[in-house]
Amino acid sequence: MKRDQTLTDPSSGPDTVRVIFGRETSVTEEGLQRCSSRLDRERESLPYVIAAENHPIHIHGFNFHVLAQGFGNYNATRDEPKFNFVNPQIRNTISVPVGGWYVIRFQANNPGVWLVHCHLETHLPWGLAMAFEVENGPSTRVPPPPADLPKF
């Protein structure tokens, strides 16, 4: 299987984003990670988390396709041929098992700042939460707040 490793300017608009969270990042002066329209990480850049329980991971603002899941260390040579591009499950929450991993793909077409977190609240102080920002693309606009939105 040939992998799509196309890198494009993130300001070119929302496109399919393939995410495996990793250590290798490029950070702007504002401290934000900018990624290409397509992000692809290998096993060497995956974080290693040792845990004694499952983590129900939820993404706000998006549904995603589950391309693969497994146990042990992710290995591109072994695991990529198992990716399901034909009829992947569509979810907004996955339960990452102890010693397990998932590969997801989603369309980053909903501008805003979105939370990705473990649904076990006691895990939030451990750092099992992050926010990512989807900026406006050439054909996407963030509408103004409604006129009747309460003001504090």
From TrEMBL:
The GO terms describing molecular function are: copper ion binding; oxidoreductase activity
Q: Give Gene Ontology CC terms.
A: extracellular region
Q: Which Gene3D superfamilies match?
A: Cupredoxins - blue copper proteins
Major localization listed first in the record, in broad terms: secreted
Where in or outside the cell it occurs: the entry states:
Secreted
Provide the Plastocyanin-like domain boundaries: 54-136
> InterPro entries from the xrefs?
Cu-oxidase_C, Cu-oxidase_fam, Cu_oxidase_CS, Cu_oxidase_Cu_BS, Cupredoxin
Q: Identify the keywords attached in UniProt to this record, alphabetized.
A: Copper, Metal-binding, Oxidoreductase, Repeat, Secreted
Q: Which Pfam families match?
A: Cu-oxidase_2
Its family?
Answer: Belongs to the multicopper oxidase family.
- State the name under which the record lists this protein: Laccase-25
